Amino acid sequence: xxxxxxxxxxxxxxxxxxxxxxxxxxxYIARILDACSIEIILVGDSVGNVVLGLDNTLPVTVxxxxxxxxxxxxxxxxxxxxADMPFMSYQICPEEAKRNAGILIKEGxxxxxxxxxxxxxxxxxxxxxxxxxxxxxxxxxxxxxxHRMGGYKVQGREEHQRQKLLxxxxxxxxxxxxxIVLEAVPAGLAQEITRSLKIPTIGIGAGVHCDGQVLVIxxxxxxxxxxxxxFVKQYVQLEDIIKQAVxxxxxxxxxxxxxADEHSF
Length: 265
Fold this sequence. Notes:
The chain has helices at residues 6-15, 27-35, 47-50, 62-75, 94-106, 122-130, 146-149, 159-175, 187-196, 217-221, 238-254, and strands at residues 19-23, 40-43, 80-84, 112-116, 135-140, 179-183, 201-204, 212-215. By secondary structure, it is an alpha/beta fold.
């Protein structure tokens, strides 16, 4: 399979083919996703929650992102690797945004960056696009805005929110983004946005009518503990399998079943 690029994403929308995107934070998982021919691997700032043990994404730094992007890039040869721009790496000014996006591309090896925000991020998205850094937008529930939103809440149920999201989507496309994530948006509104935009939409909790779907890999694999948003589908419960394996290992250590002769020199 050839290397996937941002132009392939547009071709998939134009041809009616669905886009699959999953997060990864290390080389091993990236290698598995790549072997499955996933189209996009997102190195999300969700690394703060699911890897670093933080309460939210806000403390994640550019250095944190570079570290994990490098690992993912080492494990991926086919998928398009997109890196989240963490909180306060792009909000100060377009020049700061260009500097930090450049670090994620040049040092990390990412092939695109993701920026949260709609009309308020239009200037930044345009500035990055103008210097040939591909940008994925992200509107709806934007985790870096949880304090303003009062937590992780569905966006777009009220008419004023609906109108705001429609305007945000247009602004992101106008600024030059190659795609846009719609998070925790009512399915009907997500369908309307998808139909109105030329660029692909990728949903997470936004219904089936988006051009693609994304999940956090830990959620998909059942490695996220008790936290399970409504939009998450667990395809396997690895936490239980891991616990079973660990308990069996501990029992075999105690009973001297491990290591056996075949595990010894």
